[in-house]
Amino acid sequence: MLNVENVGKTYPNGVRALEGTSFTVEPGEIVAVIGGSGCGKSTLLRAISGLDRPTRGRIVLDGEPITAPHEKIGIVFQEPRLLPWLTVADNVAFGLTDRPMSRRRHRAAGALSRVGLAEKAQVWPRELSGGQAQRVAIARALVPQPEVLLLDEPFSALDAFTRVDLQDHLLDLWTDLRPMTILVTHDVDEAIVLADRIMVMRSRPGHIFEEIRADIPRPRDRHSAAFDHVKSRVLMALDRSLAGERVPEIAAEHPGTGAAMWW
Amino acid sequence: MTVVSMEAAVEPAKTQTPARKRSLARFARPMLGLLVPVVLAAGWELVVQLGWSTGRLVPPPSRIYAEFAELARSGELLRHVTATLLRVAAGFAAGTVVATVLGAIAGYSTMVRRLIDPSLQGLRAVPSIAWIPLFILWLGIFETSKVALIAVGVFFPIYLGVMGAVLSVDRKIVEVGRAFRLSGPAMVRRILLPAVLPAYVIALRSGLGLGWMFVIAAEFMGASEGLGYLLIDGQQLGKPAEIVAAILAFAVLGKITDWMIALAAAPFLRWEDRFTRQEETADVER
């Protein structure tokens, strides 16, 4: 179980990117974090990953506080971030340093064929398409069998067809180990297709504005009524989360009302 | 260059079989670079043979070749080349080691960079020949001062190259290393070193080029052997063929040593995504 406890982050330049954020992710759960740009969703994910330390609060995984990158946590970034000097297979095996070479190779090959790129094992990353590279990045994050998988807008740089394809593919991979998954995205459809819970964030300072459950059986049909129902709820929440931002002077004039709206 | 080689590859394709086109393209491209010097040399040879010029101050290829052959036969060439090569090797090695260490530290640590970089940049602005009198006073007139001068010449391009390369390592790639909990040494070995390698090879090659430049300056300041000595000797005895022979030896040695660095580095740089890559890989496949 992953606990985010009252986490806040103030950058050295004084920007309060995140404030009082708390939630829990149960084992086998996928949580999507959605919000406009600058709402602190990436800051939140980086804090959970241990890459950045929060300035307030703490993150606890199975009773253990996370203060630095942890072996039980895998992360996929917005860009594939493959190491250009390693072959695709070596990139996938990058996180498996402390095991014998033959076993590393074997597991990397297995993960590569699982993402459908077995025949690309010996090519350089520059020879891959954007979608293929991101699949390799997902394989690299999953091959150490993490208990938590963090995804930072993983498909936002891809075209619409590839994106839908990879969303389905990710769900398929996820069923192997069912890691606790936190997906940061700005794509409402993506959040609803993948997540059990969708947390809508709001900025200044970043915090969770509303939480919406998506109780739709998987595999989810992107064109079903249930899907549309959740989608309209998320969109409404997003609208309200952004509404205050467009007229911040109202909130400033009536601090009481503003605070009530936030919480 | 690109345009020419593309034409060379495309034109025969219309008339000849692909296999024939390949072998032609493979040999025709390097040959194109030889065309200008060969035509010029043959032209000058002809002018001298026809008696239009004595070729006393500008020796024709046949006389240069004869001088070269004489130097090689008597063992003089080998002696001078060895002396010069050893000086360049020692100076290059010393300069490279110091420059790599200082460049890496200055690139890695902002504090160290603020401390040492301004001084080094100031020293870099000093024409390195200006060091000669001081080095002679400090280190004597023999090998040490010559090697030191070459090392100074080699130092600056490599120091700058390494520092720039370390500074420009992609933060996002370093973060991948952090996410996989690499230790300090592992981060250097698995992320930083491969990332700076392409720039490092270029820095080494420009450092070596300067090393060859400075070895002449070093040998001009008083040497009894070496290609620089051969140049001075040729001037004092009025033997232009000897001077040109020494210059040619420099060109050949410089090219060969540069090519050796490039060749040694090539297996480690196959991953590079360069804009000329398409054409080159196509060449290899042919």
Structure explained in plain terms:
The complex is a heterodimer of chains A (263) and B (286). Chain A has one domain (2-82, 146-262): 3-Layer(aba) Sandwich (Rossmann fold), CATH 3.40.50. Chain A contains 9 helices and 10 strands. Chain A has helices spanning 41-49, 88-92, 101-114, 130-142, 160-177, 188-194, 225-246, 248-253, 255-262, and strands spanning 2-10, 16-25, 30-34, 56-61, 64-65, 73-76, 148-152, 180-185, 197-202, 207-213. In chain A, the strands form 2 sheets. Chain A has a 6-stranded mixed β-sheet with strand order 6-7-8-3-9-10, with helices on both faces. Chain A has a 4-stranded antiparallel β-sheet with strand order 2-1-4-5, with helices on one face. In chain A, helix 3 (101-114) packs across helix 4. The longest helix of chain A is centred in the last third of the chain and has 22 residues, at 225-246. The radius of gyration of chain A is 19 Å and the shape is globular. Residues 246-263 of chain A have low confidence and may be disordered. Chain B folds into 2 domains: 2-49, no CATH class; 61-285, MetI-like (MetI-like fold, Orthogonal Bundle), CATH 1.10.3720.10. By secondary structure, chain B is mainly α. At the A-B interface, loops of A face helix 8 and helix 9 of B.
